[in-house]
């Protein structure tokens, strides 16, 4: 840990923390620009950076983009990210009362606290959990891959069938390339470039970034645009809450931090589910539940603390077992593997990667603190970014996406891959298919396949079932897989209980991943 702390003084790490935090706030505050899109777009930027600086940039963008979504949620009733949907009703109600800065101040402080607490949990829970991975064989890694694929049910939303179809598409895409044992080409269609498989980076950029640009262009063509509400322009007061108003929020902050971390650890749950569960819990335990939805500071505190606590919680299974705890974490898994940081026990204990991962965790905590300070300093000015016209923003995103995709292998073919996946992502989202399951299946499919085939070789003499009976961890994983298969039904029940009563909030997030 000491070596990891020393890495924080490196200039590239410092720049990554600052740039990632401020950039994430900017992206999160732009309706339609999600944390998933930001992380996918920035992965090519990390190619020329060290491992610690590159991943630090991604985690800083991740946590600050979740917070940034609360800015437009409070000021425009338009959540910048789905995780901020629960904040919109109370935040905008305060803005209409002329207390917009108080709403933003509450969301900023609570986001900072929730994210910092989750970073502390990540620091102490992740190394302990990583020791379990030391006892894993190829069978356990195969079951982990299958367990990770069960996340598709959570990422699919309300339509399970569409989510499964998206996952199947990702599995098929993951099969493209040479067979790992026979070297026979699979789904290459005569293209030599496809023999190495479809590169994850341009595929992710296309699915998340280019598809969102297409949606934005469609909105512009239809005459839709983001225009500041007059109430949001006329902010008054201070973003800092007096102690007498902040003190009653402390129990909610503590409760929501725990909920956020636990939800984050659950594969596929994500910040939006965490914020709604926390919001609903706070409302049910409040002495004044009628105030929720009409400008309740407790409601804002519950939502924003939880959705930022989810970020650290989602990184725990990601770093220790390679199981992403959210859609964004699934993209970050690709970033880790590109940097040669393979999740597991060795990631924490290896003399090379150990200091790097501790540097990333500490930088994650610092990014949350910097996010809070920067948010309080610029909250009155940062709202202006929501007036940037998509006619200006779209060409910039397309240019960055093209450069990023080309930079992976200096190949025009990857640019075509990006464009193709952009159209795939657009039509998938247009007809209600989630894109996150595609990315998840592209990552975990090859892992599950290779370890399954390796397990078959190992158990050729002893027998698979007999070998399975000697592996207690495998038995536990099978039970978890069975439980996870039924979790979407449970999550659907929870979401119905915690769903917002304001239909405008749901409408604002209709095009979000």
TrEMBL record:
All copies of domain DUF112, residue ranges: 14-440
TM ranges: 12-43, 55-76, 103-126, 138-157, 164-184, 196-215, 314-335, 355-378, 390-407, 413-428, 433-452, 472-491
Record key words, sorted: Membrane, Transmembrane, Transmembrane helix
Family matches, as InterPro entries: DUF112_TM
Keyword Transmembrane helix: yes
Pfam families: TctA (PF01970)
Record flagged with keyword Magnesium: no
Protein name: Tripartite tricarboxylate transporter permease
Organism: Flintibacter hominis
